[in-house]
Design goal:
201 residues, alpha+beta, GMP Synthetase, Chain A, domain 3, SH3 type barrels, 2 domains, five-stranded antiparallel beta sheet, three-stranded mixed beta sheet, 34% helix, globular
């Protein structure tokens, strides 16, 4: 059993997935991304510029750059042309998840522990469905949120099961920007060291 807290676990399933047409698109796109060494974060059809298919993806180490977006776009386009899941013209947009990213895997919650999050659940958890606070702990079943706004009859900390999660996104803060830049720099340095080791073999 591989460690679900490792960001490089490319086979780690997403907790939050698409429905309807977006789900069909994800089923077509995800195997292509995995073959390239990327992970699908989210795919959505948006009604902007006529119609836009937005694919959010990242490398297994959590990084994404312009070259990576181009590589994904070039690999996905011919597959979409063959499958032809959209009955009208559309623009393809491939991007990184961004710093205030959607949280879709258990490893995201481990990786960004200590940062602010807003989330929604599909069922009531402690008489609520919407939450905002800092991720203070994560285990195999869920995560603990230290809420920044509670009423008198509520506990500060609440455990949210992963099975109840409907949507989750990091909140942009100075700390998050700093940590995201540090993580990106570290991942790039590790990739460079790996490339050097491969060149020496």
């Amino acid at each position: 059993m591989s460690d679900p807290t490792k960001a490089d676990n490319e086979l780690e399933p997403r907790l939050i997935t698409e429905t309807g047409l977006d789900q069909r698109l994800a089923d077509i796109i995800e195997p292509v991304l995995v073959d390239l060494g990327y992970r699908l974060v989210r795919v959505r059809m948006l009604n902007q510029n006529g119609a836009t298919m937005q694919i959010m993806a990242e490398r297994n180490d959590g990084t994404m750059d312009v070259e990576g977006c181009e590589e994904v776009s070039m690999a996905v386009s011919p597959v979409l042309d063959v499958e032809d899941p959209i009955d009208r013209e559309y623009h393809l947009e491939v991007s990184s998840p961004g710093i205030d990213r959607p949280m879709v895997r258990k490893s995201d919650f481990v990786r960004w522990q200590g940062h602010l999050l807003k989330c929604e659940t599909s069922i009531m958890v402690g008489n609520r469905k919407r939450f905002r606070g800092k991720i203070v702990a994560t285990d195999a079943d869920g995560f603990t949120l230290e809420r920044d706004q509670v009423s008198e009859d509520e506990e500060q900390n609440i455990v949210i099961p992963f099975t109840a999660l409907a949507d989750a996104k990091l909140i942009l803060t100075d700390d998050l920007i700093r940590d995201a830049l540090r993580a990106d720099k570290l991942a790039k340095a590790e990739a460079a060291n790996q490339n050097e080791a491969e060149d020496e073999e």
